Every structure is written in structure tokens, then in C-alpha cells.
Amino acid sequence: MNYVSKAGMASLIAIFGLTAVGCDGDDGQDGAHTRVLDLAPGPVCANGGVEFGMGFDSNGDGELSDDEITETKVVCNGEDGANGTNALVNLTAELAGGNCEAGGYRVDTGLDNGDGGGTAGNSLLEAGEVDTTSYVCHGVDGFTVLTTLTAAAPASCPDGGQRLDIGLDNGDNSGTARDGTLQTGEIDSTGYICSGTDGASGSDGQTTLVKQDTPSITDCPYGGVTVTSGLDNGDGGGTASNAVLESGEVDYTHHVCNGDQGGGGSQLVDSNGAVLGSVLGATLTEITLRTPDPYNYLLNIAWDGSFLDKFTVYSAAGCTGDAHIYIDGTPNVSIPAKSAFWAGKEGQFMVPNGTGSIANQSLSYESFWEAGNCTELTGSEDMWAATLMSATSIGLPATITPPLSLQ
């Protein structure tokens, strides 16, 4: 649905999926937990068995709920008989090393059948009885990407311009890690955005404009900054010399992505001291944050405490029926289940249906809402089915009082 695609739409940036070698931060959630459920005889295990779920207790309630489980293993019992054996599971700590860089857990499963010189039926999973081994690993803190814009030296930009420095806040070359300042030794790359040269007639060249925005979740899964620049020359149907960098005038695009912050970072609060969540990224207009435990929803909020009206697609005419999340129509794109997109017409958030990392699907529509207007248009596009949720149900206060600040 190219007609409704919007370049530069801000998308959220966090992935809560846990894999066998997934990443988490030193200051992030607690270590991996397990949940063991007995399975009754049925289509999964004809003679019953054990379902072993692994994941992180993100809401800190001491138990794993369904949406906190990121990996599941099923071990089925053998057929009933005099010589039948039980399925056993061992969970042991794994030290930092080749299997898990920051340590984690080793999971061994097998039957209590005496294989490899073991003793059958002794309710101990011995070394020779282990059939499968997997690892659930702790993550390592990532570092925030920082950018600075300063006036370019005449040798680099004879007609003026800006110098763009980019690097991780990792303390390289005797710098101070995680201090929020891009120091000289931390700079990994430098570019120059130069103004145009005066024309032969003596009139000034076009001004170079630079804009920072929040990247899409596919470009930067953990947030960051998208930097675009170009001449204010009216290319692509834009308006020349209006001091606004329009989509057709963009000559350069660069995504500067954060690493996984593991739940750390600054807290965003309003003027009443209400905590809105952990900051994962910010631009001049909005902040990307994760709401406090146990909610942990990803969303964008403007610096004035308002929410930007996202593009909302509806299953019925007149912007009614089921609300769908639309990003750009690209098929086979996944977003985290705990992502929240503001639906201005409804005054609520759209949250994708499902758990883990959710892929889009082809859905039919009859209308869409954008910038306060409803447009009738029928078709089908790759989108996400969604449920409408209030601000308080995803962990935000009912009323947000600006100005917002970081703590």
C-alpha cells in the first residue's frame, strides 16, 4: 500500500525475545528462570511428558508467565511398560566462557534409562543418560551511541558546514564510559556536511540542513538516531529555502544504533516526579522509552508529554472496526509483542496481538486515520492485528504533566 507509506515514521526499539545465546545487561533483569510443567497424554506426547520453559522473570514476581518464556523444550515419556523410564532435566550454572560469554545456565535433558553406564530408574540424570544439552546465557551491557555536531573547519568545508562525530560511550582511549559525553578517544567515525558554494551570479548557495529522528525497529532494534541531511533546494517536489528538510531533499541517511542497554539508562519523569520509564533513545522532538516493571512496554513520547498520532488502519469504513498497526507494508517484518503505538482517534495505544517477536501478516482494510483525518480506501497490506490499551494498562500515569526531564 505505497499510497499510505510514511517515510521516517518513528518505531519502537526493543526486542524482548530470549534465545539460547541472547543478550541482557549487567544492570538488567535477573538471571534466567525455568518453569517445568507435566504434560498429560495427548497430541504433543502420546504417553505424557515434561514441558521445560526457559526465560527471564521480567516483572519480578518470582514466576514465569507465558509471555516471559522465550524457549520451550518438550521431553516425552516412552510407552507404558514394565521397563519404562522417566524423562529428567538438570539445570546447572554455566561459568563465563566459550558457551556463554557472561555466564548463564546449562540445561541437560534425557531419559533415566541407564545409558552410558548409568543406573536406570534411580531418578538421577547421569552423564551417559544426557540426550540433549542447551545453554541460556546472560547478556553483556551494550554502550549508547552518541553523536555531536560542531562547526566544520574551513579546510574541510570552505563554504561552511558541520562536522558530525559518531561513537560509542565506551571509554575508549582513556575516556569515561557511560558519562553521556562523546569524548575525543571515543569517536569512531567523522563526517562533514558542507554548505554549497556560491553560484557564479554571486547569490548564496543552498543551505545544508540536518535532521535527527528515531529510526525504525528494523534499522535499529535497540534504538538510536537516524541522521538525514541535504540541501534546502526543493528537490523531489519540496519547497526551496524554507528551512525545512523535506523527504525529496534528503541526500544522505545514516542510522546510528544503540546496543542492548539491559534495562539500564536514565529515567524519564514528569514535573510531578512520576516515572514514565527508562530512556532508550531520544531526538530533538521525542523520546523512546520502556515503561517501568512489571509493564515493560516500548513507546515514543514527545518532550511536551504528548503522544504523536501514528498511522492507524481500520478493518471497516469510517475508521471503525479493528485497529491495525501499519509501518511501511514490508512483508515478513517482526516487532516485539510489548510495543505500544498511539492511536489518536481512539485516545489509546495499539499493542500487537501475540507474544515474543511478532511478524506482520496480510490484513484487509477499508479506511485509515492520519493526522486527524479519516480516509476511505479498500485493500490489503502487511500489518499487525492489535488490541487497544489505556496508558495506565501499559505502565504510564493517567496524567502526564510537562515539562519532562531525565534523572
Major β-sheet annotation: 6 strands, antiparallel
Taken as a percent bin, the fraction of beta residues is: 35-45%
Please bin the fraction of helical residues: under 10%
Unreliable runs: 1-25
Whole-number mean pLDDT: 83
Helix/strand-derived class?
mainly beta
User: What are the secondary-structure elements, in order, as H or E?
Assistant: EEEEEEEEEEEEEEEEEEEEEEEEE
Q: What is Rg?
A: 26 Å
Number of helices: 0
Count of separate structural domains: 3
InterPro entries: DUF7151 (IPR055575), EF_Hand_1_Ca_BS (IPR018247)
Biased composition (Polar residues): 198-214
Domain DUF7151: 36-76, 86-137, 148-194
Organism: Marinobacter mobilis
Describe this protein's structure:
The chain has strands at 32-39, 49-56, 69-76, 87-94, 104-111, 130-137, 145-151, 161-168, 189-194, 208-213, 224-231, 252-257, 267-269, 275-282, 286-290, 298-302, 312-316, 320-325, 334-336, 341-343, 348-352, 357-359, 361-370, 373-389, 405-406. The chain is mainly β and 407 residues long. The protein has three domains: 2-12 and 265-406, no CATH class; 32-137, no CATH class; 145-257, no CATH class. The radius of gyration is 26 Å and the shape is globular. It starts with 31 loop residues before the first strand and ends with a strand.
Quick structural summary:
The chain has strands at residues 32-39, 49-56, 69-76, 87-94, 104-111, 130-137, 145-151, 161-168, 189-194, 208-213, 224-231, 252-257, 267-269, 275-282, 286-290, 298-302, 312-316, 320-325, 334-336, 341-343, 348-352, 357-359, 361-370, 373-389, 405-406.
Topology of this protein?
Elements: E1 32-39, E2 49-56, E3 69-76, E4 87-94, E5 104-111, E6 130-137, E7 145-151, E8 161-168, E9 189-194, E10 208-213, E11 224-231, E12 252-257, E13 267-269, E14 275-282, E15 286-290, E16 298-302, E17 312-316, E18 320-325, E19 334-336, E20 341-343, E21 348-352, E22 357-359, E23 361-370, E24 373-389, E25 405-406
Antiparallel strand pairs: 1-2, 2-3, 4-5, 5-6, 7-8, 8-9, 10-11, 11-12, 13-14, 13-25, 14-15, 15-16, 17-18, 17-23, 18-24, 19-22, 20-21, 21-24, 23-24
